[in-house]
Amino acid sequence: MSTSFSLGDITIHRIVEQQVPFFAALDTLAGLTPEQLAENRAWLRPAALDADDMLVLCFQSYVVRTPHHTILVDSCIGNDKHRPTRPTWHQKTDDTYLRGLAAIGLGVEDIDIVMCTHLHADHVGWNTRRDGERWVPTFPRARYLFGASEYAYWTEQNARTPIVAFGDSVLPVVEAGRADIVGDGHAIGDHVRLKPTPGHTPGHVAVAFGRGRDVAVMTGDLIHSPLQARYPELSMRFDADQAAAAKTRRAFLEHYCDTETLCCTAHFPSPSIGRIKRWGEGFSCEMVEG
After folding, report:
1. In terms of pTM, does the model score above 0.85?
2. Dmax of the chain from CA atoms?
3. How far apart are CA 139 and CA 282, in angstroms?
4. pLDDT for residue 2
5. Which residues of 134-167 are buried (b: 16+ CB within 10 A; e: fewer)?
6. Which CATH number fits the domain that encloses residue 277?
7. Angle formed at CA 75 by CA 258 and CA 160, multiple of 5 degrees
8. How many domains does the chain divide into?
């Protein structure tokens, strides 16, 4: 499944790998009450909440073509990866993702830059592919950009206890000499900018695109569900710093509220892309179709 948007001199494509009910809302969103969920169930269903009150999440990448580069943001789940706690990710062998690239006329050799908002397993999986007993970069011509704070955090965590996704989807890129560790405010020309958005992970970044202004921004995991736009204080229980995540989320939504900037979310159900509007003391993301 792919959707495309043309915004001046850039084009954005969605590459969807999976869309499935994934987390129980009441178990996953810290502070969410049954009463609060009941008040919002009608507008959340069926797209963002299933009949069992599971949050429906999309797992996807964005490919952005600027006048100078073809950039992939967040490389999704990947194939052949050992993820036993996530059955829909574990030892996957389908061709959905590569077919999604082919549908927009691209192969792995056409990606110039891979950017990761953070280094969780579902955002780095296609960084690498299996080649015999080795993991090698999937995108052979690309430079892979990792934020310095994020990379330092996971390097330290991995030194204490090996992190499987870091070992199979990040370190092989570094060892192959394809990685650039960049500052959290790094820019690529006048079309691409990293924006620090800590909370979900300590070094999490959003990625903004557009010359002179942010015509689009990839949110990464600063927000997972439309319910968190309505109530920005609802953080995911697995956010590294729930209070910081809530503060980041509200500031981000406030910054882009009532602007023309397209917010390209990592996990909202399709179509996943919208513009931020005010809704009482919170916000909504009004979806747009490509």
Report:
1. yes
2. 55
3. 39
4. 55
5. ebebbbeebbbbbbebbbebbbeebeeeebebbe
6. 3.60.15.10
7. 105
8. 1
CA distance 107 to 16: 15
CA angle 217, 7, 211 (to 5 degrees): 65
- Rounded CA-CA distance 34/278 in Å is 24
For residue 142, what is the DSSP state?
A: P
What would the pLDDT profile of 203-250 be if each residue is shown by its tens digit?
999 999 999 899 999 999 999 999 999 999 999 999 999 999 999 999
Residues 70-96: pLDDT tens digits?
Answer: 999 999 999 999 999 999 999 999 999
Dihedral of CA 10/16/22/25: which sign? positive
User: Residue 216: CB partners within 8 Å, gap ≥ 6?
Assistant: 5, 7, 10, 12, 64, 208, 209, 210, 261, 262, 263, 264
Instruction: For residue 31, give Cα distances in angstroms to 25, 114, 201, 216.
Output: 10, 35, 19, 30
**Which structure tokens are listed for 42?**
């009608």
CB atoms inside a 10 Å sphere around CB 190: 12
Which positions ≥6 away from 87 have C-beta within 8 Å? Answer: none
Per-residue pLDDT of 34-46, as tens digits, reads: 999 999 999 999 9
Evaluate whether 56 touches 50 at the Cβ level (below 8 Å): yes
Q: What domain range includes position 167?
A: 2-287
Residues found in the chain = 290
